[in-house]
Model the fold of this input.
Amino acid sequence: MNNIPLVILAAGLSSRMKSSDGDDKMSKSSISQANTRSKGFIEIESGNPLIYYIINNAIASGITIFYIILSKNSDEFKTYLDKISEELKIEIKIAYQDFYGNKKPLGTADAICQTLDQYEELKVSRFLVCNSDNLYSENSFRTLIKSKDYSSMIAYKFDCLDFDNERLKGFAILDIVDSFLNKIIEKPDQETINLFKSKGLYVSMNIFSFFGDQVYTFFKDCPLNPIRNEKEISVALQNMIKSSKHKMKVYHLCERVPDMTYKKDISRISDYIKKNN
Done:
């Protein structure tokens, strides 16, 4: 076991999930959950939601302390997390992302900043961060746990992720120089995609290891994206790199990371869990 905690981001509104179409495999219950719940709380297999499997893979890597950030009015989700914390004999601390009176949260960088403000110990310690809608492997968590000298992230080889090329336009391409992050290119155009394909295409799936004293200021001062009106992790990291104060180590992995963006992804993840458990 180790004492490095995992912060899981689970306060998003799941807008693309709610507006997408389902498939013939979905039950009425699954459709209802997809339309009302946070993506990490949608049940996948054997009555367990996706976040259960993320937490289990993290536990297998040695993680026992979790900080999970929810939106307000998430009582049912919190009750579930309280239950599994006892069942799995882990510690789960809940943070809440304030929307500041807006209809939606102000993004992932704001979510991390608010978590650190609510749990001051994270500002002076090392912690991992991941999304609640991607099924990360035990290997991915272990890889970051071993990274002790720098804040770090996983760069996934796109060809290994089993996504169609159209989905690539929604990802962040990573420009990597000598195993360190040089630039993050969000929602790349086709010209950029073609350029990086020629030398190996690696993308972020939002899984990181951070030192709180290095990154807090950059999350706190992260500017709003003028179009999305959100504070994004990628922008905070780009500003940290530009400051020349800290580097971001990158670890390359070639493995599948099932994600849950649309309703049709629910049955795909269910099939993946059946096959791999």
